[in-house]
Each structure stands twice: as structure tokens, then as C-alpha cells.
Amino acid sequence: MGCEVYINDNKPLFQYLKSQRESVEQQLGGKLEWIEAKKACRAVQRKENADIDDEATVTAHFDWLIDRAIAFDKVFGPLVKKFKAE
């Protein structure tokens, strides 16, 4: 299971975000997987061993997703706005 920023066909934006890697990962509290492909790129934070079929833990997993989505918005949102303004 993971939370990601998906960047479609905008390598300059991806490179800009990746140049902020140390700060981004520090603010998000962990390493991200930075995946660069021909067209679409992404920065992913994964939750390992997340069994969403286990009813006992599914709520905790979705709480993690909600937390990550909010954190990604707080961290990446201002960076994307700054990139667009430049």
C-alpha cells in the first residue's frame, strides 16, 4: 500500500521536486521511492506488509492513508505552487 504524487508528462516538475528530496523526506518522516519514467513520474511512500483484507487492521491502514494524503498535500502543495510561479 502506498501514497504517491503522480506527475504526468512534466519532467521539469519532477526534477524540481526531486531536488527537494532531503527536505521532503524529512518532513514526511521517511524515505520515498522516486520513480522516473518516459512519460509519468512519481514519488511514493509505501506501507509495507499492509493486509487490507484483514478486518482487524484495515481501519489503521486507511488512517495511515488519510494521514499520508494530508501530509503529502502540506509538503508537495507549496512546492508545486512555487514551481508554477517560477
Average per-residue pLDDT, rounded, comes to: 93
Residues in helix, % = 40-55%
Terminal CA distance reads 34 Å
Task: Please give the count of helices.
Answer: 3
Low-pLDDT stretches? none
Give, in spatial order, the strands making up the sheet with the most strands.
1-3-2
* SSE series: EHHEEH
Largest sheet: 3 strands, antiparallel
Strand content: 15-25%
How many strand units? 3
Structural class by secondary-structure content: alpha+beta
Cα-atom Rg, whole angstroms?
A: 14 Å
Question: What does the overall shape look like?
Answer: elongated
Give the helices and strands, then pairings.
Elements lengths: L1 E7 L2 H9 L1 H8 L4 E3 L4 E7 L11 H28 L1
Antiparallel strand pairs: 1-3, 2-3
Written overview of the protein:
- The chain is of the alpha+beta class.
- The chain is built from 3 helices and 3 strands; from the N terminus they run βααββα.
- Strands 1-3-2 form a 3-stranded antiparallel sheet, covered by helices on one side.
- Strand 2 (33-35) and strand 3 form a beta hairpin.
- The N and C termini lie far apart (34 Å).
- The model has no long low-confidence stretch (mean pLDDT 93).
Q: What is this structure, in a nutshell?
A:
With 86 residues, the chain is α+β, with helices and mostly antiparallel strands. It is built from three helices and three strands; from the N terminus they run E-H-H-E-E-H.
What attributes characterize this protein structure?
86 residues, alpha+beta, 3-stranded antiparallel sheet, 52% helix, 20% strand, elongated
